[in-house]
Amino acid sequence: MKKLLLIGLTCAGMQASAEQLILSPTQDNTLYESQADPLSNGAGDYLFAGRTGQNADYTLRRTVMAFDVTALPANVLINSVTLELTVSRQLMPGSIAIHRATSDWGEGTSDAPGQEGGGAIATFGDATWINAFHGDDNTAGIPWNSVGGDFLPAATFSAPYSANETLFIESTALIDDVRFWHDNPAANFGWFIRGNEVDDNAAVRFNSRENAVTPPRLIIDYSVIESVQLTPAKDNTLYQDLTGSLSNGAGDKLFMGLIQNGEIRRGLMEFDFSAIPPYAMAISANLDLVVGNIPPTAQAANASLHLALAEWGAAGSVAPGAGGAGGVALTGDATWLHTFYDTATWTTAGGDFDSSASATAGFTDVNGETISFNDANAGSADMLTDVNLWIQDATANHGWVLLGDEQNNGNARSVASADASSNQPLLTIEYIIPDLIFADGFND
Questions:
Q1: pTM of the prediction?
Q2: pLDDT of amino acid 229
């Protein structure tokens, strides 16, 4: 049975409610290949990449550029990243390759004359072809690990150019780099930009951050991620029996799987999503269940969550002892035969649910382990679909049916329920707020 997701990032007239961070480089520079004088252009108006037509001693140029992304919130979804670079001089069409830098580097006060293609003598702290930080008479320079700069061999992204123009470079790979810097600020060394390093006169010139006309910009479109943790509003266990008179609506355990005598146990759980705005969009979901005890014949197997298709009840029944045999059902309890004892029945004994699992998770023979259902797990994509359906339509929320190992006798499990004193089921949801552009009649 297919599940309907009512809204989404790709739905017409709706997208993630986004904020925008526009950044100028914190520093930029050009590395000029040279076996003689150390050259740089830390304070110049231009940056260069590629092979020039100058003498063979120093033909290659490489741009380095860094942005400070620490202004991004801690819990953020990066929707897009655009790097704006203005090509201000080129002799032929070409392309540039952007590589994430792996070492820190510097920008000094060097300022190349004229069109700046020949560079200037490096000043203290400048990045050069040999050094990440150029020294002076009193301080030795700090060399690159590799001459020409330290960067990842594989390019983050490549972009073509054909004239003097502003490039708007947008890629999911740029998002990955910005996300890496966001999560690892001490490793944010920016990008290297390389041009055509094979053909003579193939170098390209960009405006630098010091340029008064269209300097580089990094535009980050992002959404703030909210999160909530929920325990079940109600839960219960379906005990297979012919009369449908067993339940555990107020017990401290849920059961799943096949017990030793061959009877099936299935858990039920439903969560209240009213704390989440109905127009929100969940982007991740994780459900943790803590195993309370294991049978002597325990073995590794899988558990699965299935979308419940009918409403059900949890009254005050409490199964005696360990709870595995069930307790006497009270009016309003769910049982193997009843959605609400003893006035309404399931269409199918054992519960009405989608036969396709919304999520699966493995468990072992270890007592006290946590079984984690996560939308990122293989076979668990529909878990997020279920959550979004329930956020947007409370009337469709009947929760999940929890299935365990129904093939091997004696491999049932109990997990703590919402009525347990500790380790209750915990559903963690991360969500964003979408833009509803039609909500106010197109008013700003």
A1: 0.79
A2: 98
Instruction: Give Cα 33 distance to the centre of its chain.
Output: 40
Name 293's bridge partners: 414
Mark out the alpha helices in 95-203 (DSSP H runs): 172-183
**Does residue 213 sit in helix, strand or coil?**
coil
Please identify which residue in the block is written with the tokens 């050009």: 30
161 strand-pairing partners = 94
User: Rounded to an integer, what distance in angstroms lies between the CA atom of residue 298 and that of residue 303?
Assistant: 14
Judge contact between 216 and 208, C-beta under 8 A: yes
- 179 vs 27, 124, 225, CA distance in Å? 19, 31, 14
Rg (CA), the chain: 31
* 390: DSSP letter: H
- Are the C-beta atoms of 125 and 135 separated by less than 8 Å? no
**The two structure tokens encoding residue 128:** 């050069």
**Cβ proximity of 334 and 341 under 8 Å:** yes
CB-count burial class (<10 Å; 0-12, 13-18, 19+) for 226: middle
Question: Which helix or strand (DSSP H or E) is residue 51 part of?
Answer: strand 46-51
As a whole number of angstroms, the distance between CA 8 and CA 10 comes to 5
Beta carbons of 67 and 273 less than 8 angstroms apart: no
Span 158-177, average pLDDT: 96
**Short-list 4, 443, 18, CA closest to 224:** 18
Report domain extents, the chain: 19-223, 228-436
pLDDT at 27: 98
Residue 387 gets which letter from DSSP? H
Please, which residues have CB within 8 angstroms of residue 184's CB and are 6 or more apart in sequence? none
Neighbour-count burial of 240, counting CB atoms closer than 10 A to its CB (0-12 exposed, 13-18 middle, 19+ buried): buried
Contact between 62 and 132 under an 8 Å Cβ cutoff? The reply is: no
Q: Which residues contact 219 (CB under 8 A, 6 or more apart)?
A: 20, 21, 22, 23, 80, 81, 82, 83, 84
Q: Is 220 helix (H, G, I), strand (E, B) or coil?
A: strand
Torsion angles phi and psi, residue 394, rounded to 5: -60, -25
pLDDT at residue 443 above 50? no
Structure confidence by residue, pLDDT tens digits, 54-78: 666 669 999 999 999 999 999 999 9
